[in-house]
Input
Amino acid sequence: MRLLLVFNPHAAAGRAAGLLGPLRRALRRFADVEIHVTNGPGEATDMVSGADLSRCDGVLAGGGDGTLFEVLNGLYAHAPSARPPLGVIPVGTGNAFARDLGLAPGDWEKGVELVEAGATRAFDVGEVEWPAGSYRFLNIVGAGLPVDVMHFTDRLKILGRSAYTFGTLLKAMQMRCYPLRLELDRRVVERDCLFVEIANTRYTGTSFLIAPGAEPDDGLLDVILVSRLARRRVLQLFPSVYEGRHVEYEEVETFRAREIRIASEKPIGLAPDGELRGETPVTIRCGHRELAVFAPSSAV
Output
């Protein structure tokens, strides 16, 4: 195999750096590997978009969800026929997308095993378009609370996985809500929202099972909408997210759609796959089975 590995040594608050040597040795047991190490935001996208992938059997994202997001968007700079399969090496803090491959955060050795096995699945890819730009995502994009949490926890990443959990609960208790208008295919929904998440896969953050019914290859995006609720209800609802039982609460609505349009009175930011990019008004579409991913042959 010929592989391109894009590795972020700053993932997991810098703890990933010590894994590059063992990862290199593991991959070179079965593949010819070209390794690019990133130094800052945006470099992974630039590296992949500018690479010659014509003789490449796979592109691997070694890092967290942000690294995967950048590598994905670098792949989309190439024509569909020129995109090799994408591999996930989870050495970041959350690695939410990796969970749908059966990979826990830090489970990089199993990620290597998936690549070596060579089996792939065709995954849906979300497309986000707003007046100033566009991008793709594999996992999830949120508005409202997810953006507030990202701003808050960005300086707390040294705390590891607990930072996102702590930040989510704290910001949820502040009860900042956003009036939103959503067009879900042909259905219109207007709500005063604590947050909305548009999910291609099931997990977000560290271990929040935010979209328990999401399937990454069904041609649909799952929409999780949480309306304004009392603080005591936040305390009741919050623990249930770990098991996906939050969808049973009356303040939580779920939908599925191929295309979602979100509008607000004032522009509000978006949080895709552990990043901050874009704002409303926005159109989000599902690209059905657009990308091959090294993965188990069946859903996890």
Observations:
- The mean pLDDT is 92.
- The helical segments are 20-28, 43-49, 65-75, 108-117, 145-153, 161-173, 231-237.
- The first helix runs from residue 20 to 28.
